[in-house]
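A quick aside before the break. I want you to see a complete sequence-to-structure record at least once, exactly as it would be stored in a machine-readable document. Don't worry about memorizing anything.
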Amino acid sequence: MGMVTLVGAGPGDVDLLTVKGLKAIQNADVILYDALVNKELLLHARKGVRCIYVGKRFNDHKYSQLEINDLLVECSKQYKKVVRLKGGDSFVFGRGAEEMAFLEEYGVEVEVVPGITSAIAVPELQGIPLTK
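That is the input. The structure line, written in tokens, reads:
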């Protein structure tokens, strides 16, 4: 069984992806990505990598959350390196903890690569400190 890496893609600027997140994308066998992910990040994947759009927008859900969870388990059975690419940070409004718990329940190894959440990035890029 393969490993699933939950990668936070950052707030949309491809230059704000972490180095560890970039390496996960570059080494992935399959990538399941959300609607808020900058599609330019997929250009860093190896040639021939399967990329599956599992994004959800208002009244437009390609997959339900349960279907995404099931798909992650199925992909872990078929591929060694599965990347679940999520906008911002996967544990801030990203259901990353829920996906991680589901995968662990099925015995799938999970790695988490934090991303820069917009809750931090946007104020900081505007020069607004979050603490004093």
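Two observations worth writing down. The chain has a mean pLDDT of 94. DSSP finds four helices and seven strands in the chain. We'll return to this after the break.
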